[in-house]
Design goal:
Elements: H1 6-28, E1 34-41, H2 45-58, E2 62-63, H3 74-81, E3 91-96, H4 101-125, H5 141-151, E4 154-163, E5 171-178, H6 179-189, E6 201-202
Helix pairs in contact: 1-4, 4-5
């Protein structure tokens, strides 16, 4: 009977909760994570803006007016920039997010392990039909397919450069976009081979 062995029943319950949590994790892996970051620079606003736009062009981003992607409308860009007063009237750039092959494989493996654990526990409690659940392992690649389709989407980055004679800077850069892109931008600031970024620093008081 199902409750004849409480330890097995509780293990099945915990494993089922683990599989449910795994489903939410896979779904969350495709969600947008937009952040706003500010930097100070010793360059003039014009030079800084040109350098930043050049940086994003090297990462396959294009100004909104040059983007041929019909899925990014003017209203969409307006919604993305209206949430923060600091990014009013920004330069809007559009690029495509490239899904990670590693993440797709990783999520598929996680789904396979989760389904395998669930089917093995169920088979010990319900020998007559529990073993059939092992077939769920064959469906685990669908987790990678789900991630791949949802993650391949246009990405919008907005930036604004303005004069700022404080904190030892001549200009301030405000960037709004996916947190991974902002992290890459921060990393680029510290690379000595990119001389154009000399003098950039995180703005004091920015989160």
């Amino acid at each position: 009977m199902f409750f004849a062995d409480p330890s097995r029943a509780s293990t099945l319950l915990l494993t089922s909760l683990m599989v449910i949590g795994l489903g939410f994790f896979i779904r969350a892996s495709t969600k947008d994570r937009v952040e706003v970051m500010q930097f100070g620079s010793q360059q003039s606003p014009e030079a800084l803006q040109q350098a930043v736009i050049k940086y994003f062009r090297l990462r396959a981003y294009q100004p909104m007016a040059e983007s041929a992607d019909a899925s990014i409308s003017g209203e969409t860009a307006k919604d993305l920039t209206a949430t923060d007063p600091a990014t009013s009237n920004p330069t809007t750039l559009v690029g495509m997010v490239s899904p990670s092959i590693f993440m797709a494989i990783f999520l598929s493996l996680l789904a396979a392990v989760g389904f395998a654990c669930l089917s093995l526990i169920a088979a010990t409690l319900f020998p007559s039909w529990g073993g059939r659940l092992i077939g769920l392992v064959a469906a685990s690649p669908l987790a990678g397919v789900f991630y791949w389709r949802k993650s391949s989407r246009p990405e919008v980055v907005t930036l604004k450069v303005e004069p700022e004679a404080s904190q030892g800077c001549l200009s301030k850069l405000t960037v709004k976009g996916h947190r991974d892109e902002i992290a890459e931008l921060q990393s680029a600031f510290t690379r000595p081979e990119l001389n154009a970024w000399a003098g950039l620093k995180k703005w004091e008081g920015a989160e």
